[in-house]
Inverse folding.
């Protein structure tokens, strides 16, 4: 099958894709929180914001034609306000989970929440409006990778081998699937009617020129992705630092030395996140 | 409305030879009319229900009573009450079925003639059309039907116009002439809308009553302008029946405004905000009503009866 045909087939499969699984610890945690009357909506939102699959489902539901809210909903906090807690309850009880907790899935999870946190810091620093929305885009930036792992398992193994042999990860994805993970995630997010700001910045997070209206958002995620890889927080298929597009400094209008300031704010955040994820995994293993 | 859209029916079943035959006879009879989706896994069923709510659900209860409770709570919490739910059971258990009457619209005994199932499905849809949400004053379909119709044209290859109609100065009219006169004027507008739409687009139309003096009609795009003109012409020509001679000759009536001062209020007139819908232009009902609100605020600035078609992409 040539690449063009493969691409068509992948897109066809994406259109029908349902039931992305998520990690058991976070689902268990949410189940407990929801039953606890003393837990607030905001606290629940904070936990959901640490899981890309549930976050994408909540946003998808809030933006589905059925609800028809006149404006697009871009953050979990707002979605929960509009949908109400019972909706989340049902969403979580119907969510499928990974049967086994693979090291790779956990690595990607940590990578994603790390990038979300770092994107937020960058967004605040350059005073982009609604930093939580951009953090959400940061969280979802590798959604395509989750899809590859779940729906295109064999292709994913192939890509992983090619990357190990030294091939560029984006090129490898394009060769095998005809589409890379950034475009794949954005494609699904568009199907789900999510806001353009999220879609475009996810789509362009490796190729900044793909961004039209939201260049700064895409650049913020790109830089965060590189920083989190360099810091060694979490793990992706790359196992090394992806190439940095130096245009980000021009787009974000800041000096490469200012990265140091970001790292200073980032480090304690990463400690908190590590504590959070490790405790979650420990709790889930003990039950 | 005429369209290619098929109502979707979700059927939650057990895998068995019996249901294989049952399914076949159902499909033979109805597959041209409805789109069936069969589920055997409860998580998948609930997930589809959430993200793609169907038009009807058939649920085989003995397969999974626990998931049934979830289904009922989803219907409640998500305001999907309107979706008819038909319970499938193996035997007629009077007490059990009586207890389920609050949450279930109908039931089917699986061992009965499959043709009966076909009839129950058809009856349920027809009943829904008739009683779902018609406005008691005008008898026109209400918000649920409006939402369903707009949902349908969003996916249609044909271009449609969604026209939002309301009255200007209606509140003041009500205050001065009283509610029963006000109701008369609403009924008059409903009649004019329905007549004009049926006359100029007999094969393809929808008229709904949102509530109060707010209406919606939906017709093929190329017919909307003519219909708007006709509605306005007819409404303006009937206004004299609803106001007294003195007010009519001066062209306004005197009424207290919100600050309690006496002011001149123009006679009631009609405003129509038209939003054209092409395939793929909107993905959301909310987007259309938001557009309509923008157009409305523009139409409302003009005096007398007016229509405005939103030509933006």
């Amino acid at each position: 099958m040539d690449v063009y045909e493969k691409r068509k087939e992948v897109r066809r499969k994406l259109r029908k894709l349902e039931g992305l699984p998520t990690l058991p610890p976070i689902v268990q945690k949410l189940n407990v929180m929801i039953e606890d009357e003393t837990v607030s909506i905001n606290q629940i939102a904070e936990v959901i914001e640490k899981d890309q699959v549930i976050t994408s489902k909540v946003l998808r539901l809030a933006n589905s034609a059925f609800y028809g809210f006149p404006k697009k909903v871009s953050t979990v906090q707002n979605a929960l306000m509009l949908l109400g807690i019972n909706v989340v309850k049902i969403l979580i009880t119907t969510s499928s989970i990974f049967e086994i907790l693979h090291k790779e899935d956990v690595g990607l999870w940590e990578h994603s929440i790390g990038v979300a946190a770092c994107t937020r810091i960058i967004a605040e620093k350059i005073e982009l409006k609604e930093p939580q929305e951009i953090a959400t885009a940061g969280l979802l930036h590798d959604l395509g990778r989750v899809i590859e792992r779940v729906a295109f398992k064999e292709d994913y193994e192939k890509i992983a081998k090619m990357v190990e042999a030294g091939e560029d990860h984006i090129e490898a994805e394009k060769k095998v699937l005809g589409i890379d993970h950034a475009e794949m995630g954005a494609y699904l997010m568009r199907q789900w009617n999510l806001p353009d700001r999220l879609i475009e910045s996810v789509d362009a997070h490796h190729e900044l020129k793909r961004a039209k209206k939201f260049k700064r958002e895409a650049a913020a995620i790109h830089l965060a992705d590189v920083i989190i890889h360099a810091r060694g927080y979490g793990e992706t298929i790359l196992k090394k630092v992806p190439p940095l597009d130096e245009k980000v400094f021009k787009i974000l209008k800041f000096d490469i030395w200012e990265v140091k300031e970001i790292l200073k704010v980032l480090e304690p955040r990463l400690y908190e996140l590590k504590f959070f994820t490790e405790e979650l995994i420990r709790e889930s293993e003990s039950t | 409305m005429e369209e290619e859209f098929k109502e979707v029916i979700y059927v939650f079943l057990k895998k068995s030879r019996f249901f294989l035959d049952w399914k076949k006879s159902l499909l033979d009879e109805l597959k041209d009319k409805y789109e069936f989706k069969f589920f055997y896994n409860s998580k998948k069923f609930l997930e589809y229900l959430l993200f793609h709510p169907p038009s009807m659900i058939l649920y085989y209860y003995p397969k999974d009573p626990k998931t049934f409770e979830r289904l009922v709570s989803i219907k409640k919490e998500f305001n999907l009450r309107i979706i008819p739910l038909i319970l499938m059971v193996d035997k007629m258990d009077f007490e059990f079925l009586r207890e389920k009457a609050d949450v279930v619209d109908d039931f089917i005994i699986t061992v009965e003639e499959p043709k009966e199932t076909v009839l129950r499905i058809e009856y349920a849809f027809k009943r829904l059309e008739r009683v779902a949400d018609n406005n008691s004053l005008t008898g026109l379909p209400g918000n649920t039907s409006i939402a369903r119709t707009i949902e349908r044209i969003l996916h249609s290859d044909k271009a449609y116009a969604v026209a939002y109609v309301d009255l200007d100065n209606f509140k003041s009219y009500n205050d001065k002439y009283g509610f029963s006169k006000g109701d008369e004027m609403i009924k008059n507008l409903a009649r004019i809308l329905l007549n004009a739409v049926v006359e100029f687009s007999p094969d393809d139309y929808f008229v709904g009553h949102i509530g109060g003096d707010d209406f919606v009609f939906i017709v093929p795009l190329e017919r909307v302008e003519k219909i708007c003109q006709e509605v306005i012409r007819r409404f303006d020509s009937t206004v004299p029946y609803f106001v007294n001679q003195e007010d009519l000759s001066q062209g306004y009536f005197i009424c207290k405004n919100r600050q309690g001062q006496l002011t001149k209020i123009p006679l009631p007139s009609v405003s129509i905000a038209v939003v054209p819908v092409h395939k793929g232009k909107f993905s959301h009902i909310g987007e259309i009503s938001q557009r309509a609100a923008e157009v409305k605020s523009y139409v409302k600035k003009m005096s007398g009866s007016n229509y405005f078609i939103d030509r933006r992409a």
